[in-house]
Amino acid sequence: MRLRDEFWFQGREFFQGLQCSMPKDDALVAELTAPTYTFTSSGKMVVEAKADMKKRGMRSPDLADAFLLTFACGLKKKVDERDRRRWDHHEKPSAWAL
């Protein structure tokens, strides 16, 4: 459904693989285990929204989100060809922006 859901489930798979080690961090563990998940009518898994967690009296899982963003390293921004044409030779982006 959302990129956030994808990162949470990639994190779950990471820990299920049992080929990882993490420092003892009770706050991170608590945040990683706090959200629940449900299924959409089409069968897709969806992680509990932060707003719904707040309604249950939970804090925003900022540490967990920061950790799960490490799974974004494989993403690449696709630059549309028309955007490339807009940049003249003085305004070309650096390589990291592509």
Compute the number of structural domains.
1
| Major sheet details | 2 strands, antiparallel
- Element-level helix/strand string: HHEEHHH
Strand content: 5-15%
Radius of gyration: 18 Å
| Classification by helices and strands | mainly alpha
Mean pLDDT: 80
**Helical percent range?**
40-55%
End-to-end Cα distance, whole Å, is 25 Å
Strands, total number: 2
> Strand sequence of the main sheet, in spatial order?
1-2
Please state the overall shape, judged from the principal axes of the Cα atoms: globular
Low-confidence stretches: none
Instruction: Figure out the total of helices.
Output: 5
Explain what this protein looks like in three dimensions.
By secondary structure, the protein is mainly alpha-helical. It has one domain. Helix content is 42%, strand content 6%. The chain has five helices and two strands. The protein has a two-stranded antiparallel ribbon. Strand 1 and strand 2 form a beta hairpin. It is globular. The two termini are 25 Å apart.
What's the arrangement of secondary structure elements?
Blueprint: H1 3-16, H2 26-33, E1 37-39, E2 45-47, H3 50-55, H4 62-68, H5 81-86
Antiparallel strand pairs: 1-2
Q: What's a concise summary of this model?
A:
The protein has 98 residues and is mainly alpha-helical. Helices cover 42% and strands 6% of the residues.
